[in-house]
Hints:
alpha+beta, three-stranded antiparallel beta sheet
Amino acid sequence: xxxxxxxxxxxxxxxxxxxxxxxxxxxxxxxxxxxxxxxxxxxxxxxxxxxxxxxxxxxxxxxxxxxxxxxxxxxxxxxxxxxxxxxxxxxxxxxxxxxxxxxxxxxxxxxxxxxxxxxxxxxxxxxxxxxxxxxxxxxxxxxxxxxxxxxxxxxxxxxxxxxxxxxxxxxxxxxxxxxxxxxxxxxxxxxxxxxxxxxxxxxxxxxxxxxxxxxxxxxxxxxxxxxxxxxxxxxxxxxxxxxxxxxxxxxxxxxxxxxxxxxxxxxxxxxxxxxxxxxxxxxxxxxxxxxxxxxxxxxxxxxxxxxxxxxxxxxxxxxxxxxxxxxxxxxxxxxxxxxxxxxxxx
Length: 346
């Protein structure tokens, strides 16, 4: 009998499970309105008859993005640490009958090898540890299995969830040794993956071209930089979490070493509902609270000024849970033309 690698067995099982899920009646994709974005896919949904007969995607995470950032320049935040949100997770997927209908065709096809199939039968049928797919517990819990986080389908981490389907009784917490199993904290991390924040093009004064050795004021309109949030939930389990990102600071990178920033660190803090201060007539001799001074002309070109917002991120979840998550950043680059000040000798 042909032997198949562990990775091959995972891929084969995933393909057959996906095919089975797509054929189930009642399986649907949920859509929710995004503010200023029209209707957007928010993740799979499904239904339960209250007796343990669930659709294959009833336990999938549903995202509410109605309070997310919007606009053509909005984009995802990137963690300031090595941490990234999970690319896959575990949640309810099958009733006892559905798991049986999923696994038995795989065993009968003999595509994964006799040894592996025998171990699977032993696990789910022969009582080591489950007997007859837990049919005696129908309506009292669900078989949990893996899902891929929306938008992370091509991520190598999407293949990290290799645990075989496992049983969780209704109202019980999932096994603590499976870190990607749905909890409010995991939901918060999945919501982090869906956060979108406004673009970061700053307003500069003078407008158009600036001049060498002339302080250039920079600011962001506070009305455009308000907290944004995404709520992730699994209605079947009655658990949810809302992840919120709040603008904290702006870092200015002038695009050349021949420049000075205000303040010297290049980091402007979010104060009084905005970042920086709008230039007004009569302030030409003042030092801007946020800005840049170029020391050399950009010649026939321009300097790529990069403005990056740091967002503080926290979450609150069902059951009184909550905590912070790593800061996120999102930046954009804009061209700045710097000219020499022309002097006229008479």
